[in-house]
Specification:
Layout: H1 2-5, H2 8-11, E1 18-19, E2 25-27, H3 39-46, E3 51-52, H4 89-98, E4 111-114, H5 117-128, E5 134-139, H6 145-151, E6 155-162, E7 168-169, H7 171-175, E8 181-187, H8 199-212, E9 215-219, E10 245-250, H9 251-254, E11 263-268, H10 271-288, H11 293-305, H12 307-328, E12 335-337, E13 344-348, H13 355-366, E14 368-369, E15 371-372, E16 383-387, H14 392-410
Parallel strand pairs: 3-14, 5-6, 5-8, 8-9, 9-10
Antiparallel strand pairs: 1-2, 4-11, 6-7, 10-11, 12-13, 13-16, 15-16
């Protein structure tokens, strides 16, 4: 719910305490004092759009999944409970094997399984930062980091991705970060810009993190979904040596199965730091033991058989991106900001109507759902974000309706 209702720009307006009607504080300030939906969420609750260009769950988009893909969840061995804080060895070995395609030699002992990448972030924030300390998060990006940081009692400080240079990180901005920073988050490819971390920037980030005593947290959940041949495509942070680094992935994206709730983090960097970090992560994970046994037992098969799902998702995204480019080319005032990877596309539209008003108009008049750019903290107006996952016909019609709506405003 919060992911749809509260963009980062709204999060930072929350007050520091929540009070009951008597004026006595009863809840912590880790949770927002008000949970009322914004205008877009309210409208979506009233009507289901016929052309939902915000859908992010592949299981709802007609993606073909192999018959019997989930049969391994019924393995009778799942009746036995032998918890391992880092995850079952066979499951971690399957994850490690997957990094060979990226040219990284990953040891299963350096992997910790979690129930989601959100939980992986929570574990890492517990590991790296004391209450009141900070982590650096990219902007624009998916509006979740502020929530995750807030519930851990730490601050998320945005650093800028430069729209003039393919959304590369502003390294001087990073270097000027305050002393209480404990980690820097990179999203590779970024959601929603689809931008990749250039190899030169990855090296500079590792050097800066080592010099400042930061950890790098590399969110690589979309790494399998390349949309263009650009520097950094297919590269992973899992082989980083200079600084303590954690690379994140999970079934939600790698096999298009968000409902199975299994993700992982890979630790790399200086050996002594990695050893100490994994010991502490094991302690944290042992406190929760949140990953179910059946999904861990099924993981080797899911990753192996999921290759066809990844291929189908990649093909769907590329097909819809081509459709979007061709349609937008007929409207000179609309531009597609070319993504390097991921499941989203960013559109630049004439800023002749506020983003939120345009999104509401599309819902009410055209039954089309898109995201406004301010949800992701874009530094300019006139930005809309669409998912590349919808079924081809749904996507094409939704785009045509969206462009026709833009046309009505241009002729007014």
């Amino acid at each position: 719910m919060v992911r749809a209702f509260y963009p980062a720009t709204v999060v930072r307006r929350w007050v520091r305490a929540c009070e009951n009607p008597t004026g006595v504080a009863v809840f912590s300030n880790r949770v927002p004092p008000g949970l009322a939906p914004n205008r877009i969420a309210t409208e979506l609750a009233r009507r289901k759009p016929r052309f939902d260009l915000t859908v992010s769950n592949p299981t709802q988009c007609g993606i073909p999944y192999p018959p019997g893909l989930l049969d391994a969840l019924a393995d009778p061995a799942g009746f036995a409970y032998r918890p391992d804080p880092r995850g079952l060895a066979a499951a971690r070995e399957a994850v490690a094997a997957g990094y060979v395609q990226y040219g990284a030699a990953v040891e299963p002992e350096r992997i910790v399984l979690t129930a989601s990448t959100s939980e992986a972030y929570a574990f890492l924030f517990k590991l790296l930062a004391n209450p009141g300390e900070s982590v650096l998060v990219p902007s624009p990006s998916y509006p979740l980091f502020e929530h995750l940081a807030r519930v851990e009692g730490i601050e998320a400080i945005p650093y800028h991705l430069n729209p003039e240079f393919d959304w590369r990180p502003d390294l001087p901005d990073l270097a000027a970060a305050p002393s209480e920073v404990r980690a820097v988050i990179v999203v590779h490819p970024n959601n929603p810009t689809g931008s990749l971390i250039h190899p030169d920037d990855a090296s500079a980030l590792a050097d800066l993190a080592a010099a400042r005593g930061w950890a790098i947290v590399a969110d690589e959940v979309f790494l399998d979904y390349s949309l263009a041949d650009r520097p950094g495509a297919g590269d992973t942070f899992a082989g980083t040596e200079q600084a303590l680094t954690f690379s994140l992935g999970g079934l939600s994206k790698s096999v298009g199965l968000p409902q199975l709730k299994l993700a992982w983090l890979v630790a790399s960097g200086p050996g002594d730091l990695v050893k100490a970090a994994l010991e502490r992560l094991e302690f944290i994970a042992d406190t929760f033991l949140s990953v179910s046994t059946p999904v861990q037992l099924a993981l080797p098969l899911l990753l192996r058989e999921g290759a066809v799902v990844r291929s189908a998702i990649r093909e769907r995204c590329r097909c819809n991106l081509t459709t979007l480019r061709q349609a937008a080319s007929r409207v000179p005032t609309v531009g597609v900001l070319e993504p390097g990877g991921g499941w989203s596309a960013v559109l630049r539209v004439p800023a002749i109507i506020a983003e939120e008003d345009l999104v509401l108009e599309l819902l009410q008049e055209d039954s089309v759902a898109v995201h406004p750019g301010y949800f992701f903290d874009f530094p300019m107006d006139g930005i809309l974000v669409v998912s590349l996952l919808p079924e081809v016909a749904v996507f094409a019609e939704g785009v045509e309706r969206f462009l026709a709506r833009i046309g009505t405003h241009l002729t007014l």
